[in-house]
């Protein structure tokens, strides 16, 4: 499919407005539904239209049991019941996977075949994923809890687009010829870095797979990827399709397991040349330390966020409410760049609060397989309880609970869409990454003030600006210390747009041309020239 904005796809499938939607228009199938009135959608669950066929580790082109023979359950967050038992990899399995990746890099055909041949395999893989769109979307929803239409109409198509994008880069990676001061020919070679270790999170399992695997393979590397223990299923499914597309054995190895065992072994492995991690800032610190203490391998980190969404006094409030709602509640609030600090100008604050509360109360929560459902369950019990603790903290710290604030239904990890007003910067809900459906709304007076307050955080992943004034937009985009600033839109994730953070939100960039440098070494080659016609 042609390149399109992720937010536009979500707008069509989940009835969110795009930035270009007519101002003041009513959006969403849920506008006539009373407060949290979809309990039946939780109780009467849809049977997922997909089977689980891949639960073993992928090492050297074969699906194998873990060395220990151990397995662990992956759960349906709608029911808290087991979907399947998956092979539990540990340090020994990481050793096996790294050995396979090293042999494939040093002796195998992948880095030695032409870039054009590599691109053809990646394109064939993208075609196969596109054919299996619905099964993959169903598996992603079952294992993760996100709305099926979000997975089927936005995330799997974006996955396909990303691999086609990186397939296009494969034969366009090259060095430079550099003029020297004397009679020398100087060139640079852009070489694959070797064995890449990659650790992906549970909130966007397929997309994070694409963000990491795509550029690494385009550059000619081999990979050992560790999935999140909460969501191991779709990575194994697409890995099988990759081998069907002709990927040589050992180029892509997948180990499902836990962070302290498999993840730590991968981060500290002496034969891994490069590490990429997406997850929490605290875990990112550990990953960076393990990489440094082992072989000082370079590390790319995409970490947490507490992103400001700034609504200026000239905003169309109806449109601003809808966009701020999308910025926070998308993917059950489980998004590293969620607009989780909503700053509203004091002149429009009261109107915004009333309309934001009403929008949250119309939000349809329920079985993510059902049409019209906007919000499924949180990922697991740990995240579910963590969010509820933050909600209690907000109440205890005297923020005003406008709506929500409790679990939804009696089964599964569902939480009511929650809105707090009168939030202050010293509150935990204002400082910490909640990673859930909890909107925190602040009041501000002027642009200088809101820039200082928005930047007063240890994070710097993203920000949103909502204004009709180009001068105001320019002042804010240059003043905000964040890796991405969306103006009058949010969560636009085209394949070519780089993504990454300032401060404790990470190191390096993913997606786009910038991601290629993560997986390349630059070598300078200098040779003398004898009697050159020119220098």
Describe the structure.
This protein has 535 residues and is of the alpha/beta class. The protein has 2 domains: 57-304 and 510-521, Aldehyde Dehydrogenase, Chain A, domain 1; 308-500, 3-Layer(aba) Sandwich (Aldehyde Dehydrogenase, Chain A, domain 2), CATH 3.40.309. The chain has 16 helices and 20 strands. The chain has helices at 6-14, 39-43, 91-106, 115-131, 133-144, 148-169, 205-218, 233-244, 259-267, 281-293, 317-329, 349-362, 381-396, 428-431, 447-455, 470-479; strands at residues 57-59, 62-64, 71-76, 81-87, 177-178, 184-192, 195-199, 222-227, 252-256, 274-278, 299-302, 308-311, 341-345, 400-403, 418-421, 438-444, 462-466, 484-487, 506-507, 520-528. The strands form 5 sheets. Strands 14-15-16-13-12-17-18 form a 7-stranded mixed beta sheet, with helices on both faces. β1 (57-59) and β2 form a beta hairpin. The longest helix is centred in the first third of the chain and has 22 residues, at 148-169. The radius of gyration is 24 Å and the shape is globular.
């Amino acid at each position: 499919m042609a390149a399109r904005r992720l937010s536009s796809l979500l707008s069509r499938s989940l009835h969110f407005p795009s930035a270009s939607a007519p101002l003041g228009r009513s959006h969403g199938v849920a506008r006539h539904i009373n407060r949290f009135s979809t309990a039946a959608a939780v109780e009467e669950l849809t049977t997922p239209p997909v089977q689980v066929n891949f639960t073993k580790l992928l090492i050297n082109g074969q699906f194998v049991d873990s060395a220990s023979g151990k397995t662990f359950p992956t759960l349906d967050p709608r029911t808290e019941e087991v979907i399947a038992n998956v092979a539990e990899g540990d340090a020994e399995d990481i050793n096996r996977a790294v050995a396979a990746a090293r042999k494939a890099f040093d002796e195998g055909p992948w880095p030695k075949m032409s870039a054009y041949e590599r691109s053809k395999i990646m394109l064939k893989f993208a075609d196969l994923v596109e054919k299996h769109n619905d099964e993959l979307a169903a598996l992603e929803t079952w294992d993760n809890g996100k709305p099926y239409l979000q997975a089927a109409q936005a995330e799997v198509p974006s996955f396909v687009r990303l691999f086609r994008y990186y397939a296009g880069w494969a034969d366009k990676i090259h060095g430079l010829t550099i003029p020297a001061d004397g009679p020398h020919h100087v060139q640079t070679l852009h070489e694959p870095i070797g064995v890449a270790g990659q650790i992906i999170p549970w909130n966007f399992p397929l997309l994070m797979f694409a963000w990491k695997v795509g550029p690494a393979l385009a550059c000619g590397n081999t990979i050992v990827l560790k999935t999140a223990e909460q969501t191991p299923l779709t990575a194994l499914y697409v890995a099988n399709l990759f081998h069907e597309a002709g990927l040589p054995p050992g180029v892509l190895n997948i180990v499902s397991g836990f962070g302290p065992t498999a993840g730590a072994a991968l981060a500290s492995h002496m034969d891994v040349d490069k590490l990429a991690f997406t997850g929490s800032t605290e875990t990112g610190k550990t990953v960076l330390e393990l990489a440094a203490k082992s072989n000082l391998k370079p590390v790319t980190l995409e970490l947490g966020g507490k992103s400001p969404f700034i609504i200026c006094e000239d905003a169309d409030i109806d449109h601003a409410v809808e966009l701020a709602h999308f910025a926070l509640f998308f993917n059950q609030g489980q998004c590293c760049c969620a607009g989780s600090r909503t700053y509203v100008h004091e002149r429009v604050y009261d109107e915004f609060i009333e309309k934001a509360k009403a929008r949250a109360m119309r939000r349809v929560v329920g079985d993510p397989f059902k049409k019209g459902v906007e919000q499924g369950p949180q990922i697991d019990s740990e995240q579910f309880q963590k969010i509820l603790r933050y909600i209690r903290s907000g109440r205890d710290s005297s923020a005003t609970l406008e709506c929500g604030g409790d679990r939804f239904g009696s089964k599964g990890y569902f939480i009511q869409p929650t809105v707090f007003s009168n939030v202050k910067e010293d509150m935990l809900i204002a400082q910490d990454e909640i990673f859930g459906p909890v909107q925190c709304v602040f009041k501000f007076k002027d642009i200088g003030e809101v820039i200082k307050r928005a930047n007063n955080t240890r994070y710097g992943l993203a920000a949103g600006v909502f204004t009709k004034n180009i001068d105001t937009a320019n002042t804010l985009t240059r003043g905000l210390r964040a890796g991405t600033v969306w103006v009058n839109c949010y969560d636009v994730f085209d394949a070519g747009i780089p993504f990454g953070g300032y401060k404790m939100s990470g190191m390096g960039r993913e997606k786009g041309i910038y991601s290629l440098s993560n997986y390349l070494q630059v070598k300078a080659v200098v040779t003398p020239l004898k009697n050159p016609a020119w220098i």
